[in-house]
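LOG
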Amino acid sequence: MTDLTPLDGPRRAPSGGDPTKSIVLLLHGYGADGNDLIGLADYWQKDFPETLFLAPHAPERCELSPFGRQWFSLDKYDPDLQRRDPKAGAQVFELMREGVEQARRNVDQFLQTELERCNLSMKDVGFVGFSQGTMVSLFTGLRENVAPAGILGYSGAMISASRLSQEITSRPPVCLVHGEQDDVVPFTAMGACETALKDAGIAVTSHSRPGLGHGIDEGGLDIGRHFLMSIFANV
């Protein structure tokens, strides 16, 4: 097993002061870092004054960028293949298994430290991912011993979908949001992810964003806000 890399990154303390009652874990996409997603707190924090927002940097330097980070390698990923042949594309996602498993261990180590510091449990955590960060959020959150409050995934995909029903240990609600014109992670990935989640008995809602490429628009931010409000309603 590869040694774990301690994670760090930007954060937003609860705007209402202590105590912290919930955590939103923001996992960025390939080639970015935590600074890319911490800005989501600026949109949502007014509605969650008792929430700590955390945006750790991925542990690895991006193989295609001298400045960005990656949760794991995408050297075998080809978005054109995903569009041409979804079945072959699904096999590529299976090959990412080892990388996402290592990312999961790193994320869990980081999250457990924060939970202990705040005297919270996994049920107080909302995972929010973008692109590769969605892949990590889904893989990690569905394999926790205690279910997180929920998982919000933008422009992502499911890794190791064929093994999910055998490995799943928690069933938090999931919300998926994806641009119909996404040229990085094709829009069809959302449908495949939704099917895998429903087959595993998970409550999932999906939202297509017409005209949107690989990104998050204002409508998607509002969808995310309502989802977070629903999962933290009883926290």
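LOG (cont.) second protein
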Amino acid sequence: MNNLSAIVISGTSKGIGKGIAEYYLDQGHKVFGCSRSQKTIKNSNYFHYQADITDEKQVCQWVNDIKKQTDKIDLLICNAGIAPAATILTMMPGSLFEDLIQTNISGTFYTCREISKHMMRQRRGRIITISSMSAGLHLEGTSAYSATKSAIVEMTKILAKELAPFGITCNVIAPSMIMTDAVEVLGERIIDKALDKLTIKRKLSIDEICNVISFFASENSTSITGQVIHMGLVT
């Protein structure tokens, strides 16, 4: 990526999204982030918008705001999502299931749709969505969460075909264990069980995730699209 590239990241108030934003800000890139809460990053190249990605109108307003501040969008990282504590399907409240669908699937859909429109006009761009190791581990208690992360993979692969004629690539990163607030709520039993099932049985760092992002975003990766990188896990 060129210096001061315009990078859009959803869910930047904490966790992986904040870590990714800070990583690229340290390299001198411009980052446009959003979250439901107020901004938690202080950097002159960081532009924050307080928005709920499950709200279609708010996503449209966020993207319109970005377009007023930059004439190009080089990279979108759809990171925002929720990961509830492990709950077996028969015990999961319908309200929690709906929250998962709205945040993880609808939020990704709205964000990809609006940014894609801008990238189609400029006839270039990179889109990266975030799935999860859960989609490949099939752990008890993650049925709803894993279903939403699997949906993101399929959505991204089809979007890759739709946007290929416009010079836009779409790929997926499925990180293994990285300790964030969202992961910690899963509880030690689930975390230990997941680590034990990994091919590489250790936790990831933000730098490792950003290494894969940079690979997908590289000018030399124009022929790589519709792919899923599983980190720490052979599926």
